[in-house]
Design goal:
mainly alpha, 9 helices
Length: about 150
């Protein structure tokens, strides 16, 4: 049985993954702000990317940085903006995986052009704040049966 199906119903806490266990999805928002201001390490991002089946290029694009930044900063803390984006992508992915049932289905949805995204793939929008908001709004609409 694949890892994806074993995790169905008990999806990983992607916030805990990207923060290397310093936070969880239920952590105090002030603690999340502090972690973002301090900066995340690339270790958590690499683990997150592996769980998602994404490569370094995918995760770099999703959080609005370059592969080089992620590779070069392997031992350093990432800046506040990149750290905040990583936390947002992790939170969004947690909701996406919860709705679609597993990482594979979430990734397939991200790679499927949709009318709500002007026939673009949602993944092409995930690197912006408004894009992540739109993705979240669409998933929430799907959860509640809204199709437009």
């Amino acid at each position: 049985m694949s890892t994806t199906h074993q995790n169905r119903g008990q999806n990983p806490d992607f916030i805990a993954v990207v923060t290397c266990g310093k936070l969880t999805i239920r952590s105090n928002p002030l603690a999340e702000i502090e972690i973002a201001q301090t900066g995340l390490t690339t270790a958590g991002l690499r683990t997150f990317a592996n769980l998602m089946g994404w490569n370094v290029s995918d995760i770099a694009k999703a959080i609005g940085t370059t592969e080089r930044t992620l590779i070069r900063n392997e031992e350093k803390l990432l800046n506040k903006q990149i750290s905040e984006h990583a936390l947002e992508v992790a939170r969004l992915s947690g909701g996406g995986v919860a709705y679609f049932g597993d990482v594979k289905c979430w990734s397939q949805w991200l790679d499927t052009p949709h009318m709500q995204f002007d026939s673009h793939r949602p993944r092409a929008m995930i690197n912006t704040i408004r894009g992540r908001e739109l993705i979240h709004r669409i998933i929430t609409g799907l959860q509640y049966g809204f199709t437009a």
